[in-house]
Amino acid sequence: MKTFKTLKILLLLLVCQPIVAQKLTKIEKRIVNYVKANNDDAIALLEKQVNMNSGSLNIEGVNKVGREFAKEFEAIGFTATFKQLPAEVKRGDHLFCELNTGNVNGKKILLIGHLDTVFEEDSPFQTFTREGNMVYGPGVDDMKGGNIIILYALKALQQAGALKNTQIIAAFTSDEEKAGNPISISRKDLIDAAKRSDIALGFESATGFNYATVARRSSGSWLLETTGKRAHSSGVFSKGTGAGAIFEMARILNAFYNELPEQNLTFNPATVVGGTTVNYNASQGKGDTFGKTNIVAQKAIVSGDIRCLTEEQIQATMDKMNEIVSKHLPKTGATITFKLSYPPMKPTPGNYEVLKVLDKVSQDLGHGEVKAFDPAKRGAGDISFVANYVDGLDGLGTMGGGSHTPNERMDLTRFNELTQRAALLIYRLINTKQK
Fold this sequence. Notes:
The chain is α+β, with helices and mostly antiparallel strands. It contains eleven helices and 18 strands.
């Protein structure tokens, strides 16, 4: 009886255990084992890349990083092509590495990285350093680490013989941190690549080991200019003088604050200058003004940014801001202009389908589930430019912190696992039959 009870308890415990993740196939095990075995080589190449300055405006530095990276892709059978931007754009060359083995059966994949960093040649932050499992350096997390994940994921697939009958484009832009103008030229090649693909995967910094990005908000700016009647301050608010430019500016900003807030929308006023005379350089974000306490302000300028989750939200927000601006205080005027830089990546059903594949890969590797990250906590990125053409997922890069600061760092404890996950995600997608 005792033995029977013991067996019954054991059976009950087995039934109550969570479902064991599907075992990896033989080829998937080879892919994972390659990534594990070459982790030190990946870190060594990361160090080499980080120690090459590639600030967005350092054209030769960006191109040097691109040339070194191109050699790595050519060694695994990819064709490397440099897309030179017009001289007036003042940016380095984009790098596109493509493999097309013909008779494509699965999904055509676009992998997105970038070669540039925010740290120019005059920055004191130039060198890769390591302290235990934490590495520091310009662009180590944003996003040279993500570039290395792309490369070693593909190396693992190539070594496992898993790149047959497929099309993969690895695109590395030269100016993600400071996009060249006009955008229609600097992002044309990326959009063209997306139009020949089914799914885009972005390897910007991860937002956490168990999160991925299915949506990113747009990035744009606005410039508000208000005018008033210059007069002696003793007449302010009078019928002949009115409220002045600064009160008109304050009215508008206060209305923005009270009337615009909604989910996934932000609109930050960043700089303000106002007075009798105003000079403002929008490209440099700085200006100067002159005025006296006994003179009603004649002009005020405010610049800020705007971030939205969908094109519809962008348009509705601009319409509302224009409506607020049009309701002037006495004897004042105001105009607002918008400049939209990065479009939004909205959370489409297709993006969530790609997330499901990543989640399954993660659980099969024993890494736990992967959820969608809150888009309100994520900035704009290159994947946004292709979001209208392909399904996509971003945030597949390294885990770290301090991006855009001299404390930029990347945590090595998850680096290898993230590369394994990326490799299997790509493998399963290129083996997913076209519908």
